[in-house]
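It is worth pausing here to work through a concrete case rather than discussing structure prediction in the abstract. The textbook approach is simple: state the sequence, then state the predicted structure, then interpret. We follow exactly that order.
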Amino acid sequence: MPKQEKIDAVAELKDRIQNNTIAIATQYKGINVAQATELRSKLRAGQVTFKVYKNTLVRRALDELDLLDAAAFMDGPTAWAFCKDPVTPARILKDFTKEAKAIILNGGVLEGKVVSKEQIEVLASLPTREVLLAQLVGTIAAPLRNFVGTLNAVPRNFVNVLDQIKKQKEEEGAAA
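Step two, the predicted structure:
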C-alpha cells in the first residue's frame, strides 16, 4: 500500500473512532461468504459501519488517539464495527456469534475509553432504546396516574358519604 493510502487509512480510522460512540473489534477467522454477507446486511440495517483494516494501521491510529490498550484486541484478522448507538452493534454482533462461531467479540472503544469483551456483552444485553424510553415514560406516568386516582377518589368518596347520610336519614324518617 503506498504511503499516502496508509496515511489516509489511519486518518479515516481515527475519524471513525472519534465520531462514533463505539468501535468494536471482532475476529473473523473461518467465516464463509454467506455468513459475511448476512452479518454485513444485519449491521447495515442497524446503521453500523463494518470494515477490515490492517492491524498495523489500526495500532498507529490507536496510538495517535492514546488508546493503544485497545490494540490488545487485535489477534489475527480483525474487523471493526463503528456506530453512534453503542447497543445496536454490540447486540447484532453478540447474536451473530451464537449463529456463527467464526465471529469473536474481542473488545473495543466506547466514547474514547477502552472496553473489554465482557463490557460489550453487558451493552448487548441492555434493552433497546425504544424499550428504555417506554420504561422511562411508564416510570414518570405512574405517580401521575396515582395522583389522578387520588383526586378522583375525593369527590367519589364525598358522594358515597352523602349517599350514606341520605340513606341513614331515610331509615330514621321511615322508623319514626
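Step three, interpretation. The mean pLDDT is 84. Helices lie at 3-19, 33-45, 55-64, 87-99, 117-124, 129-175.
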